[in-house]
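During the second year of the project, the team shifted from modelling isolated chains to modelling whole assemblies. The rationale, set out in the original proposal, was that interfaces cannot be judged from single-chain predictions alone. As a representative example for this report, we include one of the complexes processed in the last quarter. Its constituent sequences, exactly as entered into the pipeline, are reproduced here:
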Amino acid sequence: GAGVSQSPSNKVTEKGKDVELRCDPISGHTALYWYRQSLGQGLEFLIYFQGNSAPDKSGLPSDRFSAERTGGSVSTLTIQRTQQEDSAVYLCASSSQSGGPSYGYTFGSGTRLTVV
Amino acid sequence: KQEVTQIPAALSVPEGENLVLNCSFTDSAIYNLQWFRQDPGKGLTSLLLIQSSQREQTSGRLNASLDKSSGRSTLYIAASQPGDSATYLCALFPPSNTGKLIFGQGTTLQVKP
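Output from the structure prediction step:
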């Protein structure tokens, strides 16, 4: 597609429920990142996928968070047993080259998650 | 550990004014640097990408500079407009090539008509 697409754009869920957030990167982009932006905070790295390599999960805040990337394209971020502190904007980015340093990143519009 | 600082945290200027946003970093070993814009409740829009070998990049009324030796980057906005009101973020690519962006906290700009 023309850009990075994220869905849903907004999600309100009850505490304790599981949620899935979806990211469609730009076609052909090999690198995909998830970041989280909490209210008034900076962007926090969550997870990084590069081609068929094992993902870098070092930023996931707890074992309630997981992500997968199917077929090297679409990625799903899953949060189990959501807590109020999970409320944030979840941003996905993709890049056309390994690590993206020469090409920069394209971000999606994000999913605003509210846990009530 | 690389740290990125953006000063000021917030800025309010009258329309038409030229302004400079600052970004400083503690480790000069960076791969490159990217400036983003974020509108309230929205994602990030890329403004300018400066490669490590470059000193500046220009796009329209925007000019970004990079001085690795001093650990600084500036984003210059000429003839500011109310539509420029947003949060501006700078982000570094570390040389480790993991691609993890390191973000500053951002500068929230308000341009008053």
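Chain A has a mean pLDDT of 89. Chain A has no helices and ten strands.
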